Amino acid sequence: MHDMLVKLYELPSLMDALDAMSAQGLAVRRVLAPETPVVIDWVRTNFPTSAAEVGIACSRLPISCFIAVRDGQIQGFACHDTTARNFFGPEAVAAGERGRGIGRALLLATLYAQREQGYAYGIIGGVGPADFYAKCVGAIPIPGSTPGIYAGMLRPKPPAS
Q: What is the pTM of this model?
């Protein structure tokens, strides 16, 4: 999986994305510190490989994790500055909520937060859905970025049978 580069100074409208979420009864917002255990538990249950990075994002000030919430229930999350400074990710949306623009809204909220920190460009690390990022924010592949900072990363061993 390669990394991608995004021009943070040429992002689509965040307000349009947030308005679209509001029309669906969703709020996209930064995690509040007291919510950290609830958010980490939800991520650990639904996207276990992202729990450690969400924990890091929730320990920063300002918190660098955003959530999409409907009726008090988390529907997705996105983070930045977890594995490395100025890196976007991880991000995920609940299976039953995909295809409704939630991932795009979370992506934009997070990239706008990176821009507000003074970055002109953002890095999407270890990209899965490259077409999604290219379409949403014009992200382009960074040549030679596989495996990048993830080289030699420890991974859990499968359970012995």
A: 0.95
